[in-house]
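This entry is listed below:
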Amino acid sequence: MRHSFIDLLACPISGEQLVVIGAEEKDQPIPPPYIETAQRVGSIGDVVGPLPKEFVPTTDLGRAIAAAAAPAGNADRNMQSVIWEGVLLAPNCGRWYPIIEGIPEILPDSLRNWSRDKALIHERLKKVDDSVKNLMDYSIGWADTSVKAGDNYKNSEITLLNKVDDLGSFTGPGLLSPFNPYEFHHSAEFIRGFSNCIPSLNINVGSYVLDSGSGYSWTTEWFMKMGVHAVGLEINRTYLDVGRRRMGLNQPHLIIADAENLPFADGVFDAILGFDAFHHIPDRPKAMRAFERVLKNIGRVVLVEPGGAHEMNAISQSVMQKYGTMEIGMELSDVQMYIDGIKSFNPAVETFIYPVKSDDRREVIPLKDAMDRNFMGWCLYVIDKNGGI
């Protein structure tokens, strides 16, 4: 992960911004023109990275971290190296999350790989002063691992590729996404859907966009190539690993996390995109509340979805039976239900793109006609926060 990513992240439980512990870096320069500034770039060999701006320690651990933290170093290193291994720590509450092969994992306790994570943190803590290590020992063992509603679907997403018969054939298209040389219409459908949602996002160069449920993250990659600061969030690591192989060095921010428990500071994103992804989320009102929190005061959510009859499709039913994932579609009324009670959100809007005939009445075109003629191939829902961008 780039050092600049730290400025966006926060503990999903306490809301604290995070500090890097025991970082192991890897030289990985980003070629121009991609540029992003970073506020907390440490120096090579720092055991405890720079603190968040205006950090106030309120616990013994927080005070120990403050005493051990390194000052900010050369900000230019953000474009020259990545944090390849390490731990992200909420310095006051003590919650911690791993960085593994350059990708942070900030999942709820009930979805984490605890045997792996505990081995990793013990390795990272070998470099830490005893005053910090002893205090962190308490937080290493504490977790609420009880099964939560919807965890069955999320775990099915996390382990989905374990149930794939031919992994190479399954993930192979991710190396070319969104293109598939043998499926013209499939490729065209994805490109058409993404192209049509861009005006609805109403973003520009320098905007911050959360690509929620990014899969192979080709949408995140395209945002970055357009000068957007994009974050690809996915719950399944393999998808992100395949996407990184496709992208090479010039990569956007990528993170393994849960859309219902977003690990970001309040108000950091201009827009959020859910591209063919929101229908996998079990608790959609909770995800919408999380979206509202991490959007800036004026922002926008855009969902590109297959529609309300999605779960009746034979392929969807086969996928649900084999993999155990959620494949429940939605209509505009459903989307409105997900955001009811969120005061800053305007009513949900659905957009249609369709041809108009010369003999159509210009005053109004019936909804059914609009749906029948719609050639976008997707349902496009837009939710403005405080009036939109």
Notes: The longest strand covers residues 295-305. The CA atoms of residues 50 and 82 lie 15 Å apart. The chain has two domains: 3-145, 155-385.
